[in-house]
Amino acid sequence: MASVPAELKYTKEHEWAKREGDRIRIGITAYAQEQLGDVVFVELPKVGAKVTAHQAFGVVESVKAVSDLFAPVSGEVVETNAELPQKPETVNKDPYGKGWMIVVKPSNAGEWDQLLSAEQYEKFVAEAAH
Amino acid sequence: MNSPLKRTPLHDAHVKAGARMVPFGGWDMPVQYTGIVEEHRAVRAAVGLFDVSHMGEFEVDGPRALEAVQSLTTNDASGLDIGQVQYSALCYPDGGIVDDLTVYRLAADRYMLTVNAGNIDKDWDWVTSHAPGGRWRNVSAETALIAVQGPKAERLVGRLTDRDVTAIDYYRFAPGAVAGVRTLISRTGYTGEDGFELYVAAGDAARLWAALLERGREDGVAPIGLGARDTLRLEMRYALYGNDIDATTNPIEAGLGWIVKLGKGPFIGRDVLEKVRAAGPARRLVGLEMAERAVARHGYPVVKDGAPIGVVTSGSYGPSVDRYIAMAYVATPHAGVGTDVGVEIRGQVKPARVVKTPFHPSRTKK
User: Considering only residues 164 to 183 of chain B, which have any Cβ-Cβ distance to chain A shorter than 8 Å?
Assistant: First the structure.
């Protein structure tokens, strides 16, 4: 089972979200990168772009597949991982660390509470595997 | 297409090794074991094992066997020695491709055709309904096929057999015992590396696979899934049936004119292919290199000055060339090496250039 850090929140689309003061850092989970395989391309929005919960904010491609990245929460992009498009393999190596994707200033505080806990996400992944 | 997926004799070995299994051409096949890029590099640097038992094998024998092969295939099999292999194609009367295949001359009056897994039933119907003669046998189910590919393949296979495999030239084969298993040892492959394809009885496949893994440890051997098989062949610009060639493409536009021998006598598709060759194909299968990080995939449009000029047939990141590469049919006026084109990816045009192929230098035995 891929690691699921207890302090993060998750979506059913396999993104993680981490609260940092009034901002939220976003990436994809270890399970997601395992399922994708070798990531060879990452496309992220620009700083200032608006993202909407459950809607695509970017694209990640592995050798075999193209996947949309879905925003866990709505808000404005205040930071992006500029190194990631140059080093897409970082998503595989360190999905919860250097493989982060964007930081969002959320516009709807209620959305955070809709996200899955680590325990809920783990259960969701285990069920999806069957 | 709801019939259950077929399994090769090595299916259990793949599952036990932790491979990720996916449906491919009606078969449950390993797409990767540890990761596509790592597996790709293992083949280029050392040696990899591929289970390609899903591929089909037909045998034809009898006094009219050669005549049958000649009338069905585009290449000229009349000059093949016993022990020689030839790359060829089956075509429809309109020049479209039924399948690409290899032809083995097993004996004076006996040939084997190795065909793509997803095409076995279609090809079997085609050859048996169009061959002028010969006794045909579909031996696909009883035949397993293991490809051993990479710079250390000769060392590994050589260590497991008393036959001098260094004496088997490219596109030649010989019988021999490998790890005690009766094998047809063929110096062929689909990776651009030196190596062999080992044809064995289905019941012997697991024993040979295990021996190759065990005895190949010192060579850095690794099992390789279909994912890396695809990136390896793409770097060599080898066509994949269903992606780059199919019933709607002809061998000449696909860059396979070298396997179309118009002078050998009549064969299915000959008349149309003669016209295509005389007039020149309207489009050509070319290699593209993306100018920036961008994955061109099957079906994406190729454009020039805003107008469509072609379509991508295969594309990926190429781990050995460290570039984003693709194969595409491009209208002949734009197919020259060095031509700047664009590939439309999710509505955005990404710059690309027609380049010389193979993308990665071939290291097959000469």
Answer: none
Residues forming a β-bridge with A17: A9, A26
Cβ contact, residue pair A66, B37, below 8 Å = no
Per-residue pLDDT, A128: 80
Q: Which amino acid is at A9?
A: K
Residue A130, pLDDT > 90, answer no
B-chain CB neighbours of A86 within 8 Å are 293
What pLDDT score was predicted for residue A17? 98
Q: Which domains does chain B have, with CATH numbers?
A: 11-55+142-235 (3.30.1360.120), 56-138 (3.30.70.1400), 283-366 (2.40.30.110)
Average pLDDT of the residues in A35-47: 96
Burial of A32-68, coded b for 16+ CB within 10 Å and e otherwise, reads bbebbbbbbbbbbbeeeeebebeeebbbbbbbbeebe
Q: What is the ipTM of this complex?
A: 0.86
CA separation for the pair A26, A52 (Å, rounded):
13
Question: Cβ contacts (< 8 Å) between A62 and chain B: which residues?
Answer: 36
| Segment A61-80 mean pLDDT | 96
With contacts defined as CB-CB under 8 Å, which chain A residues touch B231? 63
B298 vs B300: CA distance, rounded Å: 6
Element (H, E) at A58: strand A56-62
> Inter-chain contact A61–B295, Cβ cutoff 8 Å?
yes
pLDDT one-digit tens code per residue, B16-43: 999 999 999 899 999 999 999 999 999 9
Instruction: Write down all domains in chain A, each with its CATH number in brackets.
Output: 9-125 (2.40.50.100)
Burial of A1 (0-12, 13-18, 19+ CB in 10 A): exposed
Per-residue pLDDT reduced to its tens digit, A99-117 = 999 999 999 989 999 999 9
Q: At what angle do helices B65-72 and B120-130 cross, to 10 degrees?
A: 120
Query: What value does the mean pLDDT take over residues A68-91?
Result: 97
Q: Which of B362, B348, B53 is nearest to B200 (CA)?
A: B53
> Closest Cα partner for A69 from A54, A86, A85, A47?
A54
Beta strand pairing call for B323-331 and B307-318: antiparallel
